[in-house]
Design a protein that fits this description.
This protein is an alpha+beta fold and 196 residues long. The protein has one domain: Beta Barrel (Lipocalin), CATH 2.40.128.280. It is 26% helix and 37% strand. It is built from six helices and nine strands, in the order ααβααββαβββαβββ. The protein has an eight-stranded antiparallel beta barrel with strand order 1-2-3-4-5-7-8-9. A hairpin with a 3-residue loop joins strand 7 and strand 8. 33% of the residues are buried.
């Protein structure tokens, strides 16, 4: 099947996905995994790291990562702190200086301690600033450097660093103007990003 038809099928499947795939029914997850695999096979060999299509803002539409699901997002704060939700994850990629920022939009439960006090009060998002590189075997290696929430920043501690590692060594398997797919280890972990 041509890539355009596969993409249409994937976007159709994604219209049934809630919460980036967390808790997705197994039949839907299987269908997405199958279409992603077919798109991977349709992709021509290229150096993704040099592609002008890589730079920009990408939104996570789906992942099969159990770590991501357990964390209720990338940073893990939605799981760890009562009253905190991170319903969207964007990835801003810069190719010239090989910078990458993961940005999770913050939703704070009204009246919760997180909304009133501490580092989350008044903040709109959690950003994890990173550097990326292409490894010899073609992976996209990501190294987290700084967590930024509002006007505060700190180096990622064990918890945040481990959370970001869920996406830190993906194999780009498909890239075009509006779709970026990665596969992680084990091979059943896929990440589906759509250009914002």
């Amino acid at each position: 099947m041509p890539a355009l038809e596969l993409k249409e099928e994937l976007f159709d499947l994604l219209s049934d996905v809630e919460n980036r795939g967390i808790g997705a029914p197994s039949d839907l997850a299987d269908d997405i995994f199958e279409v992603v695999g077919e798109l991977e096979e349709s992709a021509p060999g290229y150096n993704w790291a040099e592609s002008p299509l890589l730079a920009g803002r990408w939104r996570l539409r789906y992942t099969s990562s159990k770590t991501f699901a357990n964390n209720e997002g990338l940073s893990g704060y939605a799981r760890d702190l009562q009253g905190v939700a991170t319903p969207e994850l964007d990835m801003r990629l810069e190719t010239r200086f090989k910078r990458l920022v993961y940005e999770e939009r913050l939703e704070l439960e009204q009246g919760s301690i997180a909304a009133l006090f501490g580092k989350f009060a008044g903040a709109e998002s959690i950003c994890v600033e990173c550097a990326w590189s292409r490894t010899r075997d073609g992976l996209m290696a990501v190294e987290s450097q700084t967590v930024v929430v509002g006007d505060r920043s700190w180096e990622p501690a064990d918890r945040q660093d481990k959370a970001v590692r869920a996406l830190s060594a993906g194999q780009p398997i498909y890239l075009d103007n509006d779709l970026f797919l990665l596969r992680s280890k084990p091979d059943y972990i896929v990440w589906v990003f759509q250009r914002v």
